[in-house]
Amino acid sequence: MLLPFKHISGAAGTFLWRRLSRAARSELRARVPTRGRGERNRGLEDFSARLAAGPTLQHFLRNASPPQETRPQLAEEPEEPEPYLTSSILEEAGRKVYLETYGCQMNVNDTEIAWAILQKSGYLRTRWLEEADVILLVTCSVREKAEQAIWNRLRHLTALKSKRLRSQAPLRIGILGCMAERLREEILHKEKLVDIVAGPDAYRDLPRLLAVAETGQQAANVLLSLDETYADILPVQTSPDATSAFVSIMRGCDNMCSYCIVPFTRGRERSRPLASILREVKALSDQGVKEVTLLGQNVNSFRDTSEVQFRSAAAPGLSRGFSTIYKAKEGGLRFAHLLDQASRVDPEMRIRFTSPHPKDFPDEVLQLIQERHNICKQLHLPAQSGSSRILEAMRRGYTREAYLELVQHVRDSIPGSAPRLCNPVPLGARRESQQRFHHWLLRRDRGRSPADGVLAQKTRAYHRLQDDVPAEVKRRRLEELISVFREEATRANEAMVGCSQLVLVEGPSKRSAAELCGRNDGNIRVVFPDTEMEDGTGSGAVVRAQPGDYVLVKVTAASSQTLKGVLLRRTTLRESAAHR
Questions:
Q1: What's the CATH number for 87-221?
Q2: What is the pTM of this model?
Q3: What is the pLDDT of residue 514?
Q4: CA-CA distances (angstroms) from residue 435 to 61, 214, 291, 386, 439?
């Protein structure tokens, strides 16, 4: 088929002409009148003149997609249905969707984004597996154990699918998230257990994928994006009555640590515009949410360049002893600015963030945490290893000495801070001797923090470094590490016995309806009796604690995971800060 060259000019015409095969060029030349050499030359001259008068290649590039500024924001008017969602498909609903989430907090937030998109397309939500017409698993690919759990779950769901009554609509099963990105071929073709596969950057495409699946075909979209942040989508809370929520501020990662699969499953680092983050935080505050956790693979490298006037700002320099394998990006509003603005939205809303990289910890962030009463003093500082040689093999960008110096600097800058210092700690890194591991255990008292896993595989380390530590040794080390953690965590928690803790009430305790539970500033679970107390206003009224209340609890007992205490009175964040 011939291209319409009469409307294409300049560089565009030259580009397209060179892309044609020799046979196509000959056919195009043959279309020019050929009564004589002179007439043919005149025909070619006329053709060239038409090319020169038409639009250029730059014209097509400029008009290929709408400008970034025209994308709808959070409070947009209802959109027209997508052209591939026919009226018959929409009328079929309420097609009921069952969502199941595995892995990190980012996956919880992804579930809320996916549900917001599906809800807008006419789907209904069910919490009962047996009612579902569509089952979507939001998956994790960080550890082999997580992947294996999902494979087992898929086989169970496939059996459920085969038992579906003929009178019912066919059950569709989908895999979303990191595992979909990493194992798409195996999921679709080898196992053939699912109908749709969608990577972390393809949630906007879910309605189309499900529409394709309704025809009986498999559908997949695992393309990674350089700019997708879902900034214009307001996530729908999976638990409408929850007192806390996650807010994603960025996606992807550029650090390329040798053991980490995130850059390959979630793509390159990109940040959400500050304005859209603040709108979401404000919306959550209006809904009664009392605690927000800002999420990202490396939150403190946040960089919003959507505001032109800030693009010339310099990136903060790295601390002594820290380095990076990529060039630091210049310009934009940094994480300290975001943290400042987020903490101003609602003075009675707690702000947390996870997960920062130790190399990106400017003093501005520490000073802000120290000054603001509603920014939690608990920090997550991943250590990863206590050996500088292992840290170098991991491509972490810091030494053991630099990390410990940073920990001390954090504690000096924020009195009373409770940093979690190594979550997770990979075990059995290449050439990690028992002596090095025991040295790391002996230094654990400097950190007092939990470890929650074993080194993820299918990464750069998996492909390029030999796994020379036996599985039995890794299991033994994990048991030792857990034992040490429990001892240190118990010792740290017992130090709070007799002290009053400010607790955000979450709801009834899972073990007893007569008890309530919540979390303190350090994110430690606190359990206390559901009894009457002073309302804290000075009126003398007696009330009972409700989810979303801040209460003072006097700690009476402690374990490695939980504090127990008795209720004193209801209070507020500002009042509690004023009496410190």
A1: 3.40.50.2300
A2: 0.78
A3: 93
A4: 60, 58, 42, 12, 6
